[in-house]
Amino acid sequence: MRRILFVILYLGLQLNAVPSDATSQRKDPEKIGEGVHVSAVVLYDSSYAKLHRKQAQPRRDLKDDDGDLKDAFTRLFNRTQKHFNDQFIMIQMKVKSVTKNDSLGVPLETGKTPLNGPMTLENLKKYGETQHETNDTILYLFTGGDILERSNRGDRMPRSFPGAGWNLHTITVALRSRTIPMAKTEGSQQPAAPP
């Protein structure tokens, strides 16, 4: 019994020594990204302008939507730069231009609000290639709606059982991460005994 207590005491002393050594040798993280400049080309669509107008309406009367949005984006990128700088990533960000563009977004379905993410990204890439921007320029697209991706994966369970009828003797039902075979009996389906 005493041996176990000595082992526990020994391990406890070792574990207490590790954090104190780690904190005593701590130094400031290395700053990275000094001299890196990012020019932001901001694009937005009508849904984003409508959302911005709706959020800004209680604050003040909007007269110049584009000027107000440019100020809002400048503040946003200044806060983004400050966040990076606080993490010792010393980049400089500036808003190069703010433009309304409703032609880049591709709706997921005809006449629906959500955008098809991959196709919208392809449109944004093509638009960027035509602009001949410098290497330090990043295009940003702001939209008020959701950006989705069409997926057929789902839960990988068939939505319907082909040919399912009274002649189907066994089906598998997914229950959380476990499958339970179902056996057909007279007029109802009962869980079969687990294998």
TrEMBL record:
Q: Tell me where the signal peptide lies.
A: 1-20
Question: What keywords does the record list, in alphabetical order?
Answer: Signal
Q: Does the keyword Signal apply?
A: yes
The entry's protein name is: Putative secreted protein
